[in-house]
Amino acid sequence: MLAKSDDRPRPTGSGKASRKGPSLWMMAPAMAFFAFFGLVPLVGTFILSFCDWNGLGSPTFSGLDNWTSVLQQSSMYHALWLTILMCLATFVVQFPLSLLLGVFMAGRQRYRAVLAVLYFLPLLFSATAIGIAFKNLLDPNFGLSSALHLDILQQDWLGSPTLAFWVVIAVVSWCFIPFHSLLYQAGARQIPQSLYEAAQLDGAGRVRCFFSITLPQLKYTIVTSTTLMIVGTLTAFDLIYVMTNGGPGDATRILPVDMYLQGFKSNDMGVASVIAVILIVLGLSFSLVLNRLSGSDRMESQMEGM
Amino acid sequence: MSVSRRQVLVGALASAPLFALTACGSGGGKKGGGGSSGLSAWALTGGPEQVFRDSFAAWNKANPDHKFTVQYFANDSYKQKIRTSVGSGNGPTLIYSWAGGTLKDYVASKEVVDLTDEIPNLTKRAIPSVLDVGKVDGKVYAVPINNSQPELIYYNKKLFKQAGVSVPKTFDDLLAAVKTFKAKGILPIALAGQSQWPELMWIEFLVDRVGGPEPFNKAFKQEKGAWSDPAFTQAFAKLKQLIDAGGFGDKFGSVVADNNADAALVYTDKAAMLLQGNWVYTTFTTDAKKWVDEGNLGWFAFPSVEGGKGDPSNVYGNPANYFSVSAKASKENQDEAAKFLDQYNLNDKACQELIDMGLIPAVQNIESKLKASKDKDFLLFTYNQTKNAKSFQLSWDQALSDAQAQTVLTKLSAFFLGQATAKDFVTAMNGTIK
Q1: B392-394 vs B315-318, strand pairing mode
Q2: Which keywords are on file for this protein (chain B) (predicted)?
Q3: How many whole angstroms separate alpha carbon B166 and alpha carbon B178?
């Protein structure tokens, strides 16, 4: 994203002045980059979705074949349903936790800084490492359960179709809550202290302050974070692929995993491209809807670079 | 730096799949490729990696003008990597594969060359049934390069003795054994359900024991409705009996084969049996040396099914791994590569190295060498399994096209979890035959 320079509202001064800044041409390198690595592959994918290609030789045009076959497969709808369910579930888990954590960490006391470091640890590991680690920890025969001799932990965590889905959501949330708390922490720190002081004079308690000042003031952060959460889940691939490979059966085979398996395991690039296009449409509509719901037509983040 | 805008554009396009599309009409695949101009080969890490290293080193020493550069990759990601490289014309001169469906695709898009007349010595050395797997339409497109990999059942002698169970000869014996172990609180069979492919071994053997190799051969040849053969349904019914009797326990879905967790269940005395490839033997001897030395490891061939048509000597597995020669390489390089395969590949030295590692090279007349090995019992058993097999079939997931293999694995995994019936499987598989 293009970072607007220092024009976010401040307690003092208007900040609007920096609008008349450098010419639009300064955007050219970034735009060129985006065109080559964003738009060109996008168009390529779209064209490929009308072709038959197994990765060898050259693609042959096959008309609407891929589209009709994908749209007739019950597995696609299953994957679509799982994707939407996963978006909702990760949101329900991540939103309240990261909001509370973020607001809590916005405080200035020293011990919070120490805690914050601990909370952010998952963010430092690569998804693959996390996936492999959890896979081994959750192993019912040789994992945590046998190390700690806790029979309650001896579940078929990643092998049971009903459990695996929720385990994946738990791990994904564990992974990304730090990032979203970071957003909320930064958002919360921008709220002018004077608002709280005024509220306290009026006799408002902590809870009242949270709901009447913090939450409304974080409106744009919530929109940003929610969009990132949902789009993130829509493209969540590595962690799930490493942990479950879409399985057991097709219990965690959400669209991105399905796309990869169709493309690189079944070597059906046409079908994979169709799924990619569906994902793009889904992602765009989600973020548009979110923007509408937030009541602002402009995507106006208070976070720099987001 | 004077890079013109056009060069940048071409460069950017070349990296996108779109480039392949623009080549659509012109036939494509004209460009030289093959990485560098020299000879190159890709192989896998682990297993017999050192044998490859030694063979290539010996060749490079003898042929300083035609040296091989060899790269080694981890098994898991290799299949996607090689296919992408071959597809984009950047593949190595020697292409490592499992033959089967992938080889058929390579031949169909003219990525590999016909080696039929190029390898007279190797043709004499290799086990004929193993060599056959590298043929497409009667021509040799891939040659065996390492060890033969039949599948068999390993068992824990300690647990068998403890439960008073003898080695099962028939499916009913096996079912009875499962019930005995279950009653004693021992996991009867270790199964790496999360990896999915170990589940395939069970249905492959059962289909074979019930109906012989023919039912799958028909499916392999893409005959319409081939999967409706009663052998499949009957085999699934048998498998269901095993699953319902608790043969695999209730946590097989979390067990992964990549880290040998299934073998670990056997050598930690948690499970009694394991159906796996002969490559797992080295896992036992390295990870549980003491346990093996105490004489706890036993093995037997997959039991017969009463009234079944399949010969009990029939085996499933990987006959071997294979090298093909890239059609994108220069004629000279192709000839040199074929010479390497004929003279240096699976020669006496390489065979001895494989035997020393506890593996059986896919060549004939090596009994005396096997007898001299410290692992002779196991080596002779699996060697005879390979040599005497009336039919040595390639694992379904390698034999079928990639798309079909994916459907087989997903549906079978759902069957094991009780989420799909045999009928669902048959319908789905018939649907993949166009």
Answers
A1: parallel
A2: Signal
A3: 12
Tell me the CATH number for domain B150-316+394-430: 3.40.190.10
pLDDT at A110: 74
A171: buried, middle or exposed (CB in 10 Å: 19+, 13-18, 0-12)? buried
Q: Which two tokens stand for residue A136?
A: 């081994």
For residue A248, is the peptide bond before it cis, meaning its omega torsion is within 30 degrees of 0? yes
CATH architecture of B5-146+320-364: 3-Layer(aba) Sandwich (3.40)
What are the counts of helices (DSSP H) followed by strands (DSSP E) for chain A? 15, 2
A304 touches chain B (CB under 8 A): no
CA separation (Å) from B23 to A116, B26, B30, B31?
Answer: 53, 5, 10, 11
DSSP B368: H
The CB density around residue A202, as the number of other CB atoms within 10 Å, is: 8
Residue B94 pLDDT level (bands cut at 50, 70, 90): very high
CB-CB under 8 Å, A157 with B403: no
Instruction: Tell me which DSSP letter residue B268 carries.
Output: T
**B269/A contact by beta carbon, under 8 A:** no
Task: Tell me what the mean pLDDT of segment A41-57 comes to.
Answer: 90
pLDDT category at B139 given cuts 50, 70, 90 is very high
Dist. CA B263–CA B191, nearest whole Å: 9
Predicted confidence at residue B6, as pLDDT, reads 43
- Walk across the sheet containing B94-97 and list its strands: B68-73, B39-44, B94-97, B322-325, B143-144
**What are the tokens at B336?**
């040199």
> Comparing B5-146+320-364 with B150-316+394-430, is the CATH topology the same?
yes
Going from N- to C-terminal start, the domains of chain B cover 5-146+320-364, 150-316+394-430
Residue A156 to residue B23, Cβ atoms within 8 A: no
Instruction: Answer whether residue B252 shows pLDDT above 80.
Output: yes
Residue ranges of B 65-84 with Cβ closer than 8 A to chain A: 80, 83-84
Other residues' Cβ atoms within 10 Å of the Cβ of residue A226: 19
Cα gap B284→B277, rounded to integer Å: 12
